[in-house]
Amino acid sequence: MQQRLRDIPSPWPENRCGELLHSYERLDRTKQSEFMTLHQIDEKLEPIIADVLRRNPGEPEFHQAVYEVLESLGRVIAKHPDYADNALIERICEPERQIIFRVPWIDDAGKVQINRGFRVQFNSALGPYKGGIRFHPSVNVGIIKFLGFEQTFKNALTGMPIGGGKGGSDFNPRDRSDREIMRFCQSFMTELHRHIGEYVDVPAGDIGVGGREIGYMFGQFKRLTNRYEAGVLTGKGLSFGGSRARKEATGFGAVYFVERMLGRRKTGFEGKRAVVSGSGNVAVYTMEKIRAFGGKVLACSDSNGYVVDEGGIDLDLVKEIKEVRRQRIEEYARLKRNGVRYVENGSIWDVPCDVAMPSATQNELTGRDAGTLVRNGVIAVGEGANMPSTPDAVRIFQEAGVLFAPGKAANAGGVATSALEMQQNASRDSWTFEQTEERLAGIMHDIHDSCAETAEEYGAPENYVLGANITGFVRVAEAMRALGVI
Ligand code: GLU
User: Fold this and answer.
1) HSE (CB half, 13 Å, CA atoms) of 475?
2) What is the largest CA-CA distance in the chain?
3) What is the position in ligand 1's atom list of the atom closest to the CA of 130?
4) Co-location of 104 and 78 in the same domain
5) How confident is residue 17, by pLDDT bands cut at 50, 70 and 90?
6) What confidence tens digit (pLDDT) does each residue in 315-351 have?
7) Is 322 one of the catalytic residues?
8) Extended strands (E) in 229-283
């Protein structure tokens, strides 16, 4: 009988997959092969992972993202060994270009501040590099590389002609004035503008970067280049070339994906209890669409704590607190006392629900959380954020038969609508909300169906992780093969 992964005692602490991989090098040979067998890594792929670990020290999130994809590729290599030729997989794991730069700026007190800026141009086989910019104090090169790597497969899944990239800075926008944000964005773009362009690399928003920041960055790009090149950035405001439904797209898209996934089990959001972590752009529009599909959202959160509202989260209030007042979610409980509970520092995944949608950040849902959700009867999990579930958590969901939609498929609606924004900019057109949302819904259904079909083709029905990784990989790999060794 096949041993189940979670029954095998792990010598490594939970939720430390990245560090675990990092310590792989230090294991003796027997332990190394035990590791690869335990994690079902194909022997052809083993040296590739080992190489990624060796050549990218101190980047646990990047190791984790690579490991999660390569874990799925054993079946492809077994069926099509030629995909391992010409160091194709090694090339996919190596960014085409990495740019790291100084971002000096002056705060409101007149003091000079320094941050570090990044743009990792990961893969341009399918089109210009495309992916967001993240402003968060945790940002470092390993995090941007993990995001750029994920983005490459996610963008391939959309079926649109876009490559993968990601950028950001360790700048912390919290408690910064509007003028400080503007000065920072202008300084960031003063360097970044040399590396981007409508046919080169098209950044957008991510954590800490929304319409306001994109506006300041676009203003500075236009000033430096003297070109109104609308297609150089996406997520723009509607007054200067943005697309309707872009702001809503990631959250709406994730819900379309999960609704379709539930549909295969002859159910849907109607009457379901949902928990959505986060309270940023992705979380807000995830909650809005769940409600539109007849579900009830019981809880949401920020990095300090979570609120539970048994009557269903009041979205207008969340939007007011987060988008207008720019305050903490704790304020929700203060303003709306009845039936509301605020829990500081706890795990939002302790709240029993039918559908969980992690929409905050990477590794926010651990094996322990997954165990709690399973015990509480969760039936589906849809990742609105990038890599929010740890590998342990993913395994627990899969073994428990919980439908699990990985971020690179479920949250692809944001970048897909960015590609629609690029189309509108290129044709100097502007579509209605309905027209754009209809395209988004169609794209999400297509992504769902291709992941589901691939999973079946490879003998693992309902394994959306495998389906997404293989579909994304094959699309990038086909293009790379056609382009020669570049
Ligand atoms: N940051 C988003 C993501 O993770 C959107 C990227 C984009 O629109 O380019 O996919």
Assistant:
1) 26
2) 68
3) 9
4) no
5) very low
6) 999 999 998 898 999 999 999 878 899 999 999 999 9
7) no
8) 273-276
**Does residue 337 sit in the same domain as residue 385?**
yes
Residue 24 CA, ligand 1 centroid: distance in Å: 31
Q: Quote the CA–CA distance of 108 and 176 in Å, as a whole number.
A: 9
Strand ranges (DSSP E) for 170-281? 201-204, 273-276
Ligand 1 closest atom vs CA 411: 10
Contact 315, 287 (CB under 8 A): yes
Task: State the amino acid at position 168 in one-letter form.
Answer: G
Instruction: Residue 253: count other Cβ atoms within 10 Å of its Cβ.
Output: 32
484 secondary structure, DSSP code: -
Spatial distance between the Cα atoms of 234 and 423, rounded to a whole number of angstroms: 11
Number of domains into which the chain is organized: 3
- Of 390, 410, 430, the residue at which a domain comes to its end is 410
CA distance 15 to 368: 9
Q: Tell me the backbone φ, ψ of residue 208, rounded to 5 degrees.
A: 80, 0
Q: Which residues pair with 341 in a beta bridge?
A: 308
Q: What are the tokens at 229?
A: 């090149």
Residues 197 and 262 in one domain: no
Over residues 120-140, mean pLDDT: 98
Asked if 404 contacts 465 with a C-beta cutoff of 8 angstroms, the reply is: yes
CA distance 252 to 485: 38
pLDDT digits (tens, 9 = 90+) for 427-456: 999 999 999 999 999 999 999 999 999 999
Which structure tokens are listed for 359?
Answer: 């929409």
- Stretch 380-405: mean pLDDT: 97
How many whole angstroms separate alpha carbon 136 and alpha carbon 145?
A: 15
Structure tokens at 243: 């697309």
Which residues have C-beta within 8 Å of that of residue 245, sequence separation ≥ 6? 252, 417, 433, 436, 437, 440
Query: pTM of the entire structure?
Result: 0.93
pLDDT in tens, 152-188: 999 999 999 999 999 999 999 999 999 999 999 999 9
Pocket test for ligand 1, best of 418, 423, 424, 425 (most atoms within 8 A of CB): 418
Q: How far is the CA of 144 from the centre of ligand 1 (A)?
A: 12
Domain for residue 461, yes or no? Answer: no
CB 201 near ligand 1, within 6 Å: no
